[in-house]
Amino acid sequence: MTKTYAVIGDPIDHSFSPALHNAAFLFLGLDCTYIAYRIPKGELEYGVEALKKINIAGFNVTIPHKVDMMKFLDDVDNECKVVGATNTVVNENDCLKGYNTDVDGFLDPIKKRNIDSKGSDVLLIGAGGAARAIIAGFGKEKARRITIANRTRERAEELVKFAQDIGLESDYLDLQSAGEVVNRYRFIVNATSVGLKGIGCPISTRNIGKESIVYDIVYLPVETPLIDQSKNQGATIIYGWEMLLAQAMKSFEIWTGKPAPYQAMKLTLLGRF
Ligand code: ATR
């Protein structure tokens, strides 16, 4: 019988996930299909019931439900526990298990480049939903220090505490100061939405150099102003689409138990930009 998967969130109509997963199912000849299901904030409980009714095999969870979804899970993996959020759920006979593939999905492009982040200093710009998974990732890799730069100080301070709790040194910087001392960090990661649609750069790139690794999780456009300027300064670049692809591949592998078809999924994703 055909297995059905979904992504839930709001807004959801521009999600790349249906195209990515359907391409992978088709490529491997699997009798599976993947749909986008808009569930507005506040309607998650009802939405999850509806998914169970159609015997959903698994689903991805995106904004605004990644944290709230935790309440409806019967079991969670270690990443979910650490981050406090889920992005991938497996349904077995109405028993829901949550995973968080954002953590390893974030790390994957770093590892693909054979970069070891152990002992590194990281400048993380942003303190929203994506930032926690990134901190958890650097914690897992035993980075040394993570400085959190954010427009709103209070949100950053919460994450400083989180980073310290998982064994990293951590402190706060405002965005202006971050631009001035950026050369002290090996990794510079943008986890704000600044750069979306090609508008804006979260910090000054003047002091970014050849030794810097600049990772922007914004993937639309592929070349954000931060990436574009950092490239001109000679930095190593990691693109947002690489994380998007890696977390999707990890969800696919959890659901199907098969290696995700990298080329087919990559071509599908890049073809959509
Ligand atoms: P998500 O859950 O997708 O990460 P979010 O929680 O709204 O979205 O977080 C967005 C991040 O981008 C935050 O760090 C936000 O900064 P604030 O905490 O100060 O709101 C940051 N951000 C969004 N627009 C920004 C802007 N124009 N300038 C600087 N930071 C911005």
UniProtKB/TrEMBL annotation:
Chain positions recorded as shikimate binding sites: S15, F16, S17, T62, N87, D102, Y219, Q247
Class of the enzyme per the UniProt entry, highest EC level: oxidoreductase
Family affiliation: Belongs to the shikimate dehydrogenase family.
SUBUNIT field: Homodimer.
Secreted in keyword set: no
Record-given protein name: Shikimate dehydrogenase (NADP(+))
Pfam families: SDH_C, Shikimate_DH, Shikimate_dh_N
GO annotation terms (biological process): amino acid biosynthetic process; aromatic amino acid family biosynthetic process; chorismate biosynthetic process; shikimate metabolic process
Organism whose genome encodes this protein: Candidatus Nitrosotalea okcheonensis
Underlying gene: aroE
Positions of the Shikimate dehydrogenase substrate binding N-terminal domain: 7-89
EC number: 1.1.1.25
